[in-house]
Write a structure and sequence with these properties.
The protein is mostly helical and 428 residues long. The chain contains 14 helices and no strands. Helix 4 crosses helix 13.
Length: 428
């Protein structure tokens, strides 16, 4: 009886009958719905990236040694594989020999750099004092500064008094520096330990990591990882070759001009090459300044010309030739990655940013390709296998003018054929 007494529901108008049985999402305009869904996904991705960066910053004492060990393993793993497969040495012995040889070579280079720096430092100090007295002091005493000569002559005493007044701050800085050196030594030992296992048991470590990938995507992820490491191998080889070429060219120019500290400056140029674009500019600026102090403006201009020539040779010949297409990055991507690495992890971040971006770019390209080769066909130590991660370039299209010319020729041919008289067939 209660149902019979209820008033009847008014009929639904025809324009709204289709929306009555649908959800509320149908009432939202399509552009607004698509934009909101895209924004939500971008926020989730940004939050995930921020979480990863936060974890890396918190664990930088562990992350940076492991990253450096991975970079060194990309450089030394081909030597271990050569010793195992071509020479026939056991993997453990090959790993030990490669590590001992690398440490010995590094020790010899460091010893030569330090000895050359100690031998050339007195000459540079004498040149610096002479340049200050001959060029800089008259410039400061003249217009527009007009600094009194007595104050300029008392600069060593003023520096000593400033050191005595700030002795407490200097002591605190020395203690913090000692703590930093202790952390660096701990990171060095951790990186060496991780490097040993990367070289000795890298294949099994990678197989263990692949177990966390679902079976349906394991083959594609395996191929992408192998191609990404192959690009890292190519990057390390190319960077070392470019660094040796840069250091040799600039060292030859400095030796020809007679600049002191040739070997330390060449070592600085070698290290600067591991930070693409930015490192070469900074190390080249240091060599120009040292030459300006030691030999004068003419020699400094010559060294500046040598540095510019070396940078141009790197950007247009060596890096495109050695890095190849697999790890080629746009200059804007290089500069932004170096800047981000400096903000996150300082000098170590600047050195590791570009190889990280190159590896990620190769991995993404590999995941985006449709044709996936078998994982056992990809050699992670061969940089040429990273080339297959790049999609095949599209076939070149003929120019529009050529298309138009073909259409015109076809039309004229049809008109000529239509204007010709038809021959009667025989038998009619």
């Amino acid at each position: 009886m209660a149902r019979l007494n209820q008033p009847a529901q008014p009929p639904i108008p025809p324009p709204y009958r289709q929306l009555a049985g649908t959800g509320s999402s149908q009432l939202i305009p399509t552009p607004l719905r698509v934009t909101s869904e895209l924004a939500a996904r971008l926020l989730v991705i940004a939050a995930a990236l921020a979480a990863v960066v936060f974890v890396i910053i918190q664990l930088w004492v562990v992350v940076i040694p492991v990253a450096i060990a991975l970079l060194l393993s990309a450089l030394l793993a081909p030597l271990v594989e050569t010793a195992v497969h071509r020479v026939g040495l056991p993997r453990g012995l090959a790993t030990v020999l490669v590590l001992v040889g690398g440490i010995a070579l590094l020790s010899v280079v460091l010893s030569a750099v330090i000895n050359a720096f100690i031998d050339g430092l007195p000459e540079l100090q004498a040149k610096l004092i002479q340049s200050y007295q001959v060029s800089i002091q008259p410039l400061l005493a003249g217009p527009p500064l007009h600094i009194q000569p007595s104050r300029l002559n008392d600069l060593p005493g003023a520096l000593q008094r400033s050191i005595m007044a700030n002795s407490e701050a200097i002591t605190t800085g020395a203690l913090s520096t000692a703590a930093t050196v202790t952390g660096l030594l701990a990171g060095l030992l951790l990186g060496l330990f991780v490097l040993i296992f990367f070289l000795y048991d890298g294949e099994r470590i990678w197989s263990f990591l692949m177990r966390a990938i679902p079976m349906a995507a394991r083959a594609r992820a395996d191929v992408a990882g192998r191609q990404a490491f192959a690009s890292l191998v190519g990057y390390t080889r190319a960077v070392v070759a470019v660094a040796v070429a840069d250091a040799s060219a600039i060292a030859l120019g400095l030796w020809f001009i007679g600049t002191p500290l040739v070997i330390p400056l060449a070592a600085l140029v070698f290290l600067g090459a591991f930070v693409p674009m930015v490192g070469a500019i900074l190390s080249g600026a240091v060599t120009v300044l040292v030459t300006l102090v030691a030999k004068g403006p003419v020699s400094a201009l010559i060294v500046l010309g040598v540095v510019i020539a070396v940078i141009q040779l790197d950007g247009h010949v060596l890096q495109p030739l050695l890095l190849g297409r697999a790890v080629a990055l746009h200059p804007l991507a290089v500069v932004l990655s170096v800047a981000g690495g400096i903000v996150v992890a300082g000098i170590a971040g600047a050195m590791l940013a570009v190889p990280l971006v190159a590896v990620l770019a190769t991995g993404v390209r590999s995941l985006a390709t449709t044709a996936v080769p078998p994982p056992d066909k990809i050699n992670p130590l061969d940089p040429e296998d990273a080339e297959s991660a790049r999609p095949e370039p599209p076939e070149p299209r003929p120019p529009r003018r050529l298309k138009r010319l073909k259409v015109i020729i076809a039309g004229v041919t049809q008109k000529i054929r239509a204007s010709l008289p038809r021959r009667p067939r025989p038998g009619r």
